Amino acid sequence: MLLALVWQTTMHVWDYIHGVYGYDYGCINEMLVNYQGGLVRRGLFGELLFQARGVFDFSIASAIVLLYYVSVVLLTALLVWLFKKNGWSLFVLPFPMCLYVYLCDPYFLIGRRDCWLLLLAFLCYKCYYEYVKKGDIKWMLLCNAVMILGLLLHEASLFFMLIPIVLFDMYHLYITQTRGKAVLFLISHWLFPVCVLIVLITKHGDSALVAQIWNSWSPYLSVSEELVKESYMSRTMNWSLEYDIQNVTFPSVWMPYFIWKIPAWPFNLYLFVCIYYLVTRFNTINVGIWKVNKVNNVLLSNVVILMLICIFPFMLLVSCDWGRDFPYWVIGSLMFFHFFHRKDEFPIFLTRMSERFQGWIDRVPVLNTTWGYFILIMTLPLGFMHASVSGMFPIIPLQLKHLILTGKWIVLA
Questions:
Q1: pLDDT digits (tens, 9 = 90+) for 105-133
Q2: With 0-12 CB in 10 A as exposed, 13-18 as middle and 19+ as buried, what is 261?
Q3: 28 and 64 in contact (C-beta within 8 Å)?
Q4: Distances, alpha carbon 359 to alpha carbons 85, 170, 182, 292, in Å
């Protein structure tokens, strides 16, 4: 796995040297958003980069690319540790490559904050877990600080960092405190992150602010009028809710294998069902090389459903790219399950729902076999995961390509 990662990194550094990742590249210039024109969402990373550039002389684009790969290596190491620590099947760890997310498409993710946000999510879950376990207020304060840091990096952290923990804390207080104390504790626990969120919602920026931000970088890089006008930064600052809803509702999708348009919602539903199965039953694959512990599928299902409830509004209303949302959902669920996996930590209705879903899976023998697991991977409508408006079903050549890459990862591992 590490050799494959090094090779992949080397190839993309080569691309950067040859000018593929210039400042006109969307995932590069989006990271340049800073606070030089005033407080604005997603500006923390760019502000830290701006202040560091004022002290040290370095290539800004190179620093963004380097920090991206550092985040990939750290997240990969964390996932390997999680799987080994919990006795989960290491065989399925490279499968994100099959699902067209995470490491398989660094052309899209390069320079973005996704891996850093997931790393912060793990730290946030850890801090809240220690607070619940020990009752020490310093862990709650640290949890608040990590949440605020995540919100300042990208507001998407609201959906897989703030909301899941607030809902979990709400239920924990409901069963352990009186109603009055529960409300008081809930407000005191999360007042600061919520206030930061409210401020950031109003600070989306405009064209004038984009021009100010680009001008602030002019001492360090060449800024043209065309770059300011056409940059991805301008689109993120002028985000349109109506546009995203139009892109995610999928009235129809063009199928290259047919000559007519057909509804896309059945493939979206199939995608969600398959991902739910693949995550809650990942220990179905056991090739006998690694020791695999028994996983309580019902409790894991509780976490997966909870995380989906929190992230689904983001998928539907805010994000038009599920290639980033599914890692938030899947990897966030696995991280959360590492800390919270007791039956009494979840509402009874959620447990009963999970028991019903897992019971349906148990009644289908093929779903409890390794080859059945592979069949579902091979039939996933991957196009919907990368860009919601470009879905095709099935994308056999693409899936075969990434299955081959996965095989290479397994050999190298």
A1: 444 444 468 889 999 999 999 999 999 99
A2: exposed
A3: yes
A4: 27, 28, 35, 22
